[in-house]
């Protein structure tokens, strides 16, 4: 089983995809259709998020294990420190290792119920992702990733402080970082410059979501923490009531972002798929990121 870093260090740029664990049997069918459709395009890795509040955790472990054991894909399991003691975290990491997972995205997580509420550490748990990175490193030969935020994490006082802590967790042993959603390539490139200015050259991957519907645009606002910039609004707003035209304009926009980022030398693009494959397949085909045979 290859590591994420090995897959990113090839001679050509790659793409990767992110899924969330299915809630029920119907969701599971949809997810597995998307996984199989994308498998044919040889993504560098597929990541499975780790739910807040406990409910989806078993499904994350099960789904990541199935990807490891039943597909040709390289899985990456997310892990959070939410409501977990260190003993429980060790246990989950042990499960990941047991099902053949070598890649972990170590994120702190948000308070269950209210993501903006006060973060309360489990009495025997961890406070920051940096500690989770160290724990993963201690427990095995894992390739470990972390989260990065082009506009700064919402809890950070300012961009300098945000960058300082990001570099802290990279230096704690992370092999790469994946960026939260953003609207313009420059937003990601400025993050990369800030990290670079602190003397850190760890790989940063941009995260993109195909903007196929007004809902995906709203999701980007919610996750990025930034309003839609005028330059994006001017391209999408005219089609708010025309789903087909919105989708075309949104896919064009994300494809152009991908082109610019690849021209700026990123080793890969990470796609937030919402467990569907069609839009991602279209974008990566247009960007020439799929094998010729696919
Ligand atoms: C690519 C990606 C994947 C994600 N996957 C998931 C998932 O699967 N499940 C899930 O629940 N959530 C997920 N998240 C969301 C993430 O859990 C939240 O954004 C969370 O609020 C922050 O996580 P973090 O790992 O960046 O935290 P941290 O790096 O711990 O940072 C949290 C805050 O504390 C500050 N900070 C960090 N270190 C220190 C320090 N040493 N001293 C003082 N302050 C510090 C940071 O600047 C930041 O403001 C994901 C986010 C991204 C970008």
UniProtKB/TrEMBL annotation:
Protein name, as recorded: Methylenetetrahydrofolate reductase
GO molecular function: FAD binding; methylenetetrahydrofolate reductase (NADH) activity
Family: Belongs to the methylenetetrahydrofolate reductase family.
Catalysed reactions, semicolon-separated: (6S)-5-methyl-5,6,7,8-tetrahydrofolate + NAD(+) = (6R)-5,10-methylene-5,6,7,8-tetrahydrofolate + NADH + H(+)
Entry keyword Zinc-finger: no
Organism name: Saccharothrix tamanrassetensis
Keyword presence, Transmembrane helix: no
GO biological process, one term: methionine biosynthetic process
Alphabetized UniProt keyword annotations: FAD, Flavoprotein, Oxidoreductase
GO terms under cellular component: cytosol
A Pfam match: MTHFR
Cofactor: FAD
Top-level taxon of the source organism: Bacteria
Pathways per UniProt: One-carbon metabolism; tetrahydrofolate interconversion
